[in-house]
């Protein structure tokens, strides 16, 4: 239970990691008082950097290298790694200690793994609130790394101020048939593992595809990195900061804000549904020959 809002608010604003961890857990688990805490926070303008892409693209390695570079520049960083959930207990399968071990004891880096908790799109159902808590803690950057499955590539654009899509040369000809949604959400493309065979050809094809998009205030850059050797990371940070500095006000941003609001409303509407009870009832009734899912769901409308 959250009782002393002033104490919690001040501790979060002062970057007290213990209170920050407790606040995020309270939000995730909807502890009594979490809604009042969210309403009381001064949510700052810390830029949220979204990183997404297919499994195996080297997202975690790139985020590690980016974090190290930002630390060297004296910045305070929060990293949220959105991990796939266990379908049985809804907990994260991967852990922050494993993914970013070298930064775990750094006092200017806060690292948190959160589970998707059954969210079909690949982002945690509570990710919006979690990021807002972090925004109140006066970090210089908040990094959100997605699992890179389902619709998470598109969902991340509703959360991040700038979205970087990470690809690898092995994507090959797939770039020619890339989902239009992915093309629309990317503010920066990164070809990681650029020292591999076929990387230059892939990079050239991606640049051609990106340049076919309609002109706008921001020309989407295509960068090459070798994250495990920390190559190309300063150039990536330069492009990220250039985008943030532009502070682009667009219809896209307004639309994405409405998406956030709708997601929060949806989560509030369905929070009273007991998932375990739902699964048990389905298990009992689905074996009946007369079972109809739509008739069954009327009880939950």
3D structure, described in words:
With 301 residues, the protein is α/β, with parallel strands linked by helices. 43% of the residues lie in helices and 12% in strands. The protein has 13 helices and seven strands. The protein has a seven-stranded parallel β-sheet, with helices on both faces. Helix 2 packs antiparallel against helix 6 and helix 4 (59-72) packs across helix 10. The protein is globular and about 55 Å long.
Core attributes:
single chain, 301 residues, alpha/beta, seven-stranded parallel sheet, globular
Percentage of residues assigned to helices = 40-55%
Strand order of the largest sheet: 3-2-4-1-5-6-7
Rounded to an integer, what's the Rg over CA atoms? 21 Å
Largest sheet: 7 strands, parallel
Poorly predicted tracts of residues: 85-98, 118-122
Number of strands: 7
Structural class: alpha/beta
What's the end-to-end separation, in Å? 30 Å
N-to-C series of helices and strands: HHHEHEHEHEHEHEHEHHHH
Shape field: globular
Overall pLDDT confidence: 81
Tally of separate helices: 13
Beta-strand residue percentage: 5-15%
